[in-house]
Amino acid sequence: MTETSLDRKLRAILSADVKGYSRLMGEDEEHAVKTITAYREIVFGIISKYKGRVVDSPGDNILAEFSSAVNVVKSSVEIQETLKEKNADLPDSRKMEFRIGINLGEIIQEDDRIYGDGVNVSARIEGLAEPNGVCISTLFNTQCGQGKNT
């Protein structure tokens, strides 16, 4: 039996999710799809600007990897600031407010997909972030913030 070695890398991982997305879809699917599509284009552009790679984006979730911890944080702050401006013109009931979780950890890459505890932690702490906020893991605790104090 031949063993293949897994491709392991240390990466900064961004996991983003829209607060209340199911409610938004239930109230007005067409508007929700148009808004999430427009916001994804913005988010993907910012991720690319900071040399990140979008790995997956099912539903309202976005998973991206960066080789730089500084770039993932800068990207997250710009995403939140940009989307907050976009949301300013919408009624409260239609705003799409993202929560972002960031983790620096080891991942396993297989083709274009990534796996591992580094990915899982970023997804878990995303739920700790306030809407329009960013939550960043550290080795022993988690730091969450919103706006420019992120």
The overall strand count is 7
**Number of continuous helical runs:** 4
Q: Helix coverage percent of residues?
A: 25-40%
Largest sheet: 7 strands, mixed
Query: Could you spell the SSE succession in H and E letters?
Result: EHHEEHEEHEE
Number of domains: 1
Q: Please, what is the average pLDDT? A: 91
Q: What is the beta-strand fraction?
A: 25-35%
Distance between the termini: 49 Å
Low-pLDDT stretches are none
CATH architecture: 2-Layer Sandwich
CATH topology descriptor? Alpha-Beta Plaits
Quick one: CATH class? Answer: Alpha Beta
Q: Radius of gyration, Cα only, in angstroms?
A: 16 Å
Shape: globular
Structural class: alpha+beta
Question: What is the fourth-level CATH superfamily?
Answer: Nucleotide cyclase, GGDEF domain
List the quaternary state of the chains: single chain
Question: Secondary-structure map with pairings?
Answer:
Elements: E1 7-18, H1 21-27, H2 29-49, E2 53-56, E3 62-66, H3 69-87, E4 98-110, E5 113-115, H4 117-126, E6 133-137, E7 142-146
Parallel strand pairs: 4-6
Antiparallel strand pairs: 1-3, 1-4, 2-3, 4-5, 6-7
